[in-house]
């Protein structure tokens, strides 16, 4: 795939959302993997619920609320690790292939960008921590318009900024629901299926399915 812009979801696509907990397994409690799973699931659920109600709250607030729920709902969890985990979430590990792939795509002359539910402060902290700032032209945060993906207005932030047609943009996400929204908007999409999940949203299929971002350099 060749494109005028390569746009990436952040959490789960460029950054490992479970690295905050895995970094601190020893202090989270009896079932850290379950805490991390619930934290992520509730974080996403809150964005969909808030968008449906038209009651926007920034992603950092929802992230903290989701962690509080996860720690409260998993027996044997250590509530005292809350601030440590939140600090870690601001500096998540990026996946190992990310810097190389972003550089290769940027070297083609295409735009490279993030389009994320994350708040501007969250994205800036993650990008700088991972050393990706020079490899990205833009960091689009839905906070600017006050609605979460998959609202079409979120994807339009990219086309409005660049003046490109939707089909001139390659969009990558590890979240199948996000890919469905981007396909509906008209982007060319690659689903980054790192954990070999079954497909869904069969009427809104991606252009490609790859195991990690290195697949972009092979298409």
Structure described in brief:
This protein has 9 helices and 6 strands. It has helices spanning about 20, 25-30, 30-55, 60-75, 80-90, 100-105, 120-130, 150-160, 175-185, and strands spanning about 5-10, 110-115, 140, 170-175, 190, 210. It starts with a strand and ends in a 9-residue tail after the last strand.
Description:
- With 219 residues, the protein is α/β, with parallel strands linked by helices.
- The chain has two domains: 138 residues, HAD superfamily/HAD-like (Rossmann fold), CATH 3.40.50.1000; 71 residues, DNA polymerase, domain 1 (Orthogonal Bundle), CATH 1.10.150.
- It is built from nine helices and six strands; from the N terminus they run E-H-H-H-H-H-H-E-H-E-H-E-H-E-E.
- A six-stranded parallel sheet has the order 3-2-1-4-5-6, with helices on both faces.
- Helix 3 crosses helix 4.
- The longest helix has 22 residues.
- The chain is globular, with a radius of gyration of 17 Å.
- The relative contact order is 0.17.
- The model has no long low-confidence stretch (mean pLDDT 96).
Order of helices and strands: EHHHHHHEHEHEHEE
**In CATH, what is the class of the largest domain?**
Alpha Beta
Mean pLDDT: 96
The largest β sheet comes out as: 6 strands, parallel
CA radius of gyration is 17 Å
* CATH homologous superfamily placement of the largest domain: HAD superfamily/HAD-like
Helices and strands: which structural class? Answer: alpha/beta
- Please mark out the parts with pLDDT under 50 across 5 or more consecutive residues, or reply none: none
CATH architecture classification name of the largest domain: 3-Layer(aba) Sandwich
Distance between the termini: 5 Å
Strand order of the largest sheet: 3-2-1-4-5-6
Roughly what fraction of the amino acids lie in strands? 5-15%
The backbone outline, from C-alpha atoms, is globular
């Amino acid at each position: 795939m060749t494109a005028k812009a390569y746009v990436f979801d952040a959490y789960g696509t460029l950054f490992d959302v479970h690295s905050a907990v895995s970094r601190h397994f020893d202090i989270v409690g009896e079932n850290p993997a379950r805490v991390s799973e619930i934290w992520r699931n509730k974080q996403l659920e809150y964005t969909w619920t808030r968008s449906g109600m038209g009651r926007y709250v920034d992603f950092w607030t929802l992230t903290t609320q989701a962690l509080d729920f996860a720690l409260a709902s998993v027996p044997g969890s250590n509530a005292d690790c809350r601030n440590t985990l939140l600090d870690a979430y601001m500096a998540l590990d990026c996946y190992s292939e990310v810097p190389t792939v972003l550089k290769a795509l940027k070297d083609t002359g295409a735009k490279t960008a993030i389009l994320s539910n994350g708040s501007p402060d969250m994205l800036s902290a993650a990008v700088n921590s991972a050393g990706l700032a020079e490899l990205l032209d833009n960091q689009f945060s839905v906070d600017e318009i006050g609605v979460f993906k998959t609202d079409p207005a979120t994807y339009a932030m990219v086309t409005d900024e660049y003046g490109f047609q939707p089909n001139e943009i390659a969009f990558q996400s590890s979240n199948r629901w996000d890919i469905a929204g981007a396909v509906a908007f008209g982007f060319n999409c690659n689903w980054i299926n790192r954990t070999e999940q079954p497909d869904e949203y069969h009427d809104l299929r991606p252009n490609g399915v790859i195991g990690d971002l290195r697949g972009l350099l092979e298409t």
